[in-house]
Design brief:
Elements: E1 18-19, E2 22-23, H1 24-31, H2 62-70, H3 83-91, H4 98-115, H5 124-127, E3 129-135, E4 140-146, H6 148-169
Antiparallel strand pairs: 1-2, 3-4
Helix pairs in contact: 2-3, 2-4, 2-6, 4-6
């Protein structure tokens, strides 16, 4: 049992707090270097491999979204909606068919994200993360917390094609298929 006291190692820090002579904000900026130009040698030339057939993702359904929501936990991303709230909205029977329609909409969104090109500028809020600086004594560790919806969609897709991923990764990926 660890108490999250302000003096405890691993406790969240205020961005304006100072560690030594630098503020936490300056330390985080130093850990995130500016973008570098594209390295042409790192780009693979030629046609990209064929994407998986869209029928592979038809298994992402209302039931799979609910299963993913049940197995998702954690704090809220930038929207402020935590996993508990998502779970309540997706599982609650007192919302009549609204929960079913929300699950169906999330499943349709997951299938679209997995099977077609989506303009990246429209995904900014979906891909946003909340940055939490943790005090590691010595130093600061940046932790990014993504939106809970993104975690639910990712799990639903992985439940649908998990066997394919395990087959493709084989022994090359240590935790592929790890339960």
């Amino acid at each position: 049992l660890r108490l999250d006291l302000p003096s405890a190692s691993g406790a969240p820090l205020n961005l304006d707090q100072h560690i030594g002579e630098d503020s936490v904000r300056d330390i985080l900026k130093a850990k995130h270097p500016p973008a570098e130009p594209l390295c042409k040698e790192a780009v693979i030339e030629g046609n990209p491999p064929q994407p998986p057939h869209p029928v592979r993702f038809e298994a992402v359904t209302r039931a799979l979204v609910r299963k993913a929501a049940l197995n998702t936990s954690g704090v809220a991303g930038p929207s402020g909606v935590a996993a508990d709230s998502w779970r309540q909205n997706l599982m609650c029977t007192s919302f009549t068919d609204a929960s079913d329609r929300l699950c169906d909409a999330i499943a349709a969104c997951a299938r679209r994200l997995a099977t077609s090109h989506v303009d990246p500028s429209t995904l900014e809020a979906y891909l946003a993360c909340r940055l939490i600086p943790l005090d590691k004594r010595p130093g600061v560790r940046p932790i990014g917390i993504c939106e809970v919806l993104r975690r639910i969609v990712g799990k639903a897709i992985l439940y649908a094609i998990g066997d394919d991923i395990r087959d493709a990764a084989g022994s090359l990926q240590l935790c592929a298929g790890h339960n």
